[in-house]
Amino acid sequence: MTESGEDLASLLSSGDLFPNPERGDLLQGLIIATDTNGLIVDLGMKRDGVIPRTDLDKLPGKEADVHVGDEVSVMVIDPIDKDGNLLVSISHARESGDWLEARRKMEEEEVIEGIPSSVNKGGLIVPFGRLAAFVPASHISNLPRGLNEQERMDALGNLIGKTLPFRIIEVDPQRRRLVFSERKAIRQHRMHQKAEVIHTLKEGEVRKGIVTSLREFGAFVDIGGADGLIHISELSWTRIEDPSKVVQVGQEVDTLVIRLDLESNRIGLSIKRLEANPWETNIDNIESGQELEGEVSVITSSGAFIRVSENLEGLMKFSDGPGNLMPGMKVRVAVTDFDPKNERMDLALIEE
User: For the chain, how far is it from start to end, CA to CA, in angstroms?
Assistant: First the structure.
């Protein structure tokens, strides 16, 4: 007997262990008679079980060929129906092996493949053995946002018949609820792929990549099956507040691998470090007291950043607020402190 078969057998018991059967209980019984309602099953209890004829119709082919005298496994579907019967199901009991398999795959976080067979307003229906799993639309990775109901149904319909990866995220036999997620399967695949790629990388090497997304804190770049992050501070030597001022989604860029975190599976990249470090190249060109021409690049609550060369900025702190300073304005400033080691330059405005 297979491992899943052993698990199933351990769930099946004689009626003596279920004096008050509940929905979902698995029992062993002997078919003792047939009547207009279906099959009568001796469960070793005070009441016999009734297998509705509609339940037999759900069994495929030869599985529906059961007779008086056969021993069967059944699942309780209604302890007391409106007629006082104990309703049990052969089809549900035989599905229990699929429920056990689904639970095992969920606990092991296994990625499985499935083929959607139909859609409803909420998502996809995917067969799993004898069961039908539901995939919420929110768990489908490439489903466009902002679609109306018909557009969403059409987009979901395009996935029918296609083999897709899934992760099982909910298994509830009593509620007959089996839920898949394609989004989580894709994410897990990417994480595994990233883990493989990260072991091939070395800090200090240059990799070409494609910008896949922009965030307020930086840009994500695919460098060959794995996304690395270019933090906003690593996009340019000058201060920027919007990554889209430097790169765009879909753009091919050269990046420098500056950090590999194998434990958290993270890759740190830089664009600016592929350019000459302006703090190093200007060590002999700038000194305290020097007067420079500059342009206001960014205004913050504490001061204005002034670009004095292509990639070199200094901070002019406000004493009485920004006054009439605006980004793009040309100004004349004096260097009050130049610290290339810590990449800091303090400036003071020279009044005209």
Answer: 93
Within 10 angstroms of residue 242's Cβ, the number of other Cβ atoms is 10
Cα–Cα distances (Å) from 39 to 33, 45, 54, 67, 98, in that order, read 6, 16, 11, 9, 24
pLDDT in tens, 20-39: 788 878 888 899 998 877 89
Cα 258–chain centre separation: 26
Cα angle for residues 51, 117, 115 (degrees, 5° grid): 110
- Name the token pair of 184: 């989580």
Instruction: Name which of 177, 10, 2, 4 is nearest 105 in CA terms.
Output: 4
The CA dihedral of 97, 103, 104, 105, to the nearest 10 degrees, is 110
* Contact (CB, 8 A) for 93 and 35: no
Does the global pTM surpass 0.85? no
Cβ-contact 50, 41 below 8 angstroms: yes
Nearest alpha-carbon partner for 40 in 79, 78, 70:
70
